[in-house]
Amino acid sequence: MAQRVAVSDGANKKATRVRVAVRLRPFIGQPGEDDDGPCVRGLDSQNLEIVNWRNATETVKYHFDAFYGEKTTQQEVFLSSVKPILPHVLNGQNASVFAYGPTGAGKTHTMLGSSEQPGVIPRAVRAVLDLVSAKDGDEGWDYSIDMSYLEIYNERVLDLLSPNSQDLPIREDKDKNIFIPGLTHISISSFSDFDNHFVPASLNRTTASTKLNQRSSRSHAVLLIKVVRTQRALRQRQQTGKLYLIDLAGSEDNRRTGNQGIRLKESGAINLSLFTLSKVVDSLNSGTATRVPYRDSKLTRLLQDSLGGSAHSVMITNIAPEYRYYFDTFSALNFAAKSKLVVNKPFTRETVAAPVLPVCLRSEAIQRRPRGSRIWHRAPEENFEQLRQPEPAESQESAPFSLYPTSVRAMLSEPSVMDRLVALERLMMSCQDGDGLGMLKDMAQSRKEIQELKEKQRELENKAVLFSRLAGEKSGPKAEPVFRNTVAPLQRKQPSAANPPRQQAVVQPLQGSVSVSDLQPLQQLAVQVKKQSVCVRRKDGKRSDQKAETEWESQLDTSILEQSRDKILQVLNAGSFKDLKGLQQIGDKKAKLILGWREINGPFTKLEDLAKVEGMTEKRFSSFMKANILSAMGKRCAVA
Ligand SMILES: Nc1ncnc2c1ncn2[C@@H]1O[C@H](COP(=O)(O)OP(=O)(O)OP(=O)(O)O)[C@@H](O)[C@H]1O
């Protein structure tokens, strides 16, 4: 067989954006749970709003490519977000659809669905098969389709079509294609071919019951559908398009999931990979990063050619309406808003035959294969794209799945991320070469990031405690609901002369028929937050009752002062790591803490919010304000 070489495709390298859709699932009450109504709702087909936890009389609005409300059907989601990208796969381009969001928010429902309401995966596979059969005999190309199915569980890549497989490596070929040597590929030519393999393999996926979801996915599941088209007249011309359909595991707050033991370990790996995913998105967005940290987790390494790479990507962010999901929803929306900025450059992957020596293929035993289908295995050293070769027909019945139950796999020794790092470190200590040192550095960086992740988790847990404590306090005066299920505008504070009206969210009546009671928890939270805020001079000129205005500030022109404050706020909200470090008194650590705070809580509504960032005492905040206002005004020496 001739080796294939990639041909350049400069002409059709056209940048496309990652399409970001948000899907809100219907309200699902828990036994004994008070119905506090939704904390988030759609405004129209692209916009939604969520209550602002800092001030329950306000909302934060988001704009996405699509917003799907509680009543949106599986068919509608597929037709508007997924179907349009499928034809690209037949032209040798990559495409990916992935569902992101907190645990229990509807990712598996969206991707997999049920027999009554099939989700994106079955619909997309059927559509690809239909597209290919419509092409048959047309245009002089032959098409073949194959499927692979894997999960990333505790940072291990497991072949769901070969349940006894070991952790598989992820590699990149010289043309920057990501591939997995040794992964099973099954040729499919009809939907029943696909179903015969996919359904039993799905049962191999690691799931477990947590407090938040009875059947929670504990792994990231990736279905790969590969379409190869070969020109009939010139057999050496071949194009390969890959479609990734990915059901991510949910981000988790372990205080609420009640996770312990192995569930806690899984959760650590899930959160770590999702954290890395958000870092990848961050660095793609900044456009200045020299190293996008794809390699920091298996998930991001695998997504390398489907996110920020060369694929048409669709991210469906699933969110839940209940208040108990509030912080998860907020951070999922912020993550989704960031992803919208990622630009992909899809291009056709075409190879031509090159006159080289034939390559011997490793013959491998077929693990499991229903009648009539072909399975291709690759030796680890083989090039996935170049050395594809069907095994000769062979009949062998599948091994019984009961031999490999999920629970057994879950209980197999699962070293924690830290254990693995320690083991790796030991291994590296015995290595004297430069590569070893490089890996040690990477490891130190990973440890640091794990530490940061832990801190972030601690912070979230503290917030959850505060939130649930406040939710439990029902004795105080009842507050007005923010969302009503009648035609009701958002409740707002009455503006007064001394307190001019702030720009408020425009609110449409609620979609659907979710009933709303009181919003006590959020409103109390807002009051609490207010008490903590640092007092500064108010627009009406009155001084705070807690703290006297500083001398230096009173000597400045009010409008210039306001402009400087706005400028600083802008940097805090939109600035990159580098921009933040450009501020006075902000070093590496503070800049990171600010980015972290922003990611979890969204933009700072006012400068005083900065005092809520870890390590920012009132004194430091005042000193920060003084230094930066003076710096912004270019009057460093103007006042005492
Ligand atoms: N749009 C929807 N319509 C009806 N039911 C839904 C919808 N979305 C989710 N559900 C239901 O909500 C529950 C949780 O959904 P699902 O298991 O898909 O969440 P998940 O995000 O995949 O969770 P995890 O990350 O824990 O696996 C399921 O019972 C599911 O059927």
UniProtKB/TrEMBL annotation:
Keyword field contains Glycosyltransferase: no
Primary site of residence: cytoplasm
Alphabetical list of InterPro entries matching this protein: Hlx-hairpin-Hlx_DNA-bd_motif, Kinesin-like_fam, Kinesin_motor_CS, Kinesin_motor_dom, Kinesin_motor_dom_sf, P-loop_NTPase, RuvA_2-like
CDD domains, per the entry: KISc_KID_like
Top-level taxonomic group: Eukaryota
GO MF term list: ATP binding; DNA binding; microtubule binding; microtubule motor activity
UniProt keyword annotations, A-Z: ATP-binding, Coiled coil, Cytoplasm, Cytoskeleton, DNA-binding, Isopeptide bond, Microtubule, Motor protein, Nucleotide-binding, Nucleus, Phosphoprotein, Ubl conjugation
Coiled-coil ranges per UniProt: 440-470
Pfam families per record: HHH_3, Kinesin
SUPFAM superfamilies from the UniProt entry: P-loop containing nucleoside triphosphate hydrolases (SSF52540), RuvA domain 2-like (SSF47781)
Compositional bias segments (type: Polar residues): 493-509
Subcellular location(s) per record: Cytoplasm, Cytoskeleton; Nucleus
Region called Disordered, residue ranges: 377-399, 490-509
Function: Kinesin family member that is involved in spindle formation and the movements of chromosomes during mitosis and meiosis. Binds to microtubules and to DNA. Plays a role in congression of laterally attached chromosomes in NDC80-depleted cells.
Similarity field: Belongs to the TRAFAC class myosin-kinesin ATPase superfamily. Kinesin family.
Protein name: Kinesin-like protein
Source organism per UniProt: Tetraodon nigroviridis (Spotted green pufferfish)
